[in-house]
Amino acid sequence: AVMGRTLVELFYDVVSPYSWLGFEVLCRYQHIWNIDLRFRPAFLGGIMQATGNKPPAMLPKRAEYLLKDIKRMGKYYQVPVQISGGDFKRVLGIGTLGAMRFITAIDMTQPQYVESLSREFWLRFWSQREDISQPANILAAARQAGLSSELAQKMLEMVSSPEVKNRLKETTEEAIKYGAFGMPAVVAHVNGEPHLFFGSDRLELLGNVIGE
């Protein structure tokens, strides 16, 4: 962390629309607050499994509320998230493990692209209903985020490497150690102590804890 700046880690998976909302707000505030924002691509499926959590949409009444809530938050934060009832099934059917491994490979080798690439995956998954588990779509997202075709192809080949798989697994385990049970999981390090905030609706509390 830069001297005098509070390290804030954002654990996220592009399968989560709330992670997208939290991500965009923190991306804006990293220039306003005195924070050093660190992106931590992780795997939501791994967190759910380890903690016995279930997707909130499995509960019909909660699913009904989520649709309204995500639309309202998208409008409020001006994030182009599009959501409809059929999306919950779609999400369960399309895995983001490949996409999260791809982002992890980028994070390990070309971290300057992590922000734009993550945003591109969310846009494609949540605004354009694209199947981001397909290699062709992963490559298209990478090109849109500014990577050359050669580099994107090289990163795609890295996805199946033990290094990348292990890094994603380790990051996911780290989130669980901090107490995460879902995403986004935001961890602020204040005076040597980690403070966990769950969801995209606790960011004013985060500001309060870090003295902003």
From TrEMBL:
GO terms for biological process: glutathione metabolic process. Coiled coil: none annotated. One of its GO terms (cellular component) is mitochondrion. The active site is at S16 (nucleophile). Pfam families: DSBA. Its EC number is 2.5.1.18. Keywords: Transferase. The keyword Transferase applies. Residues 8-208 form the DSBA-like thioredoxin domain. Belongs to the GST superfamily. Kappa family. This is Glutathione S-transferase kappa 1. It comes from Eolophus roseicapilla (Galah cockatoo). The gene is Gstk1.
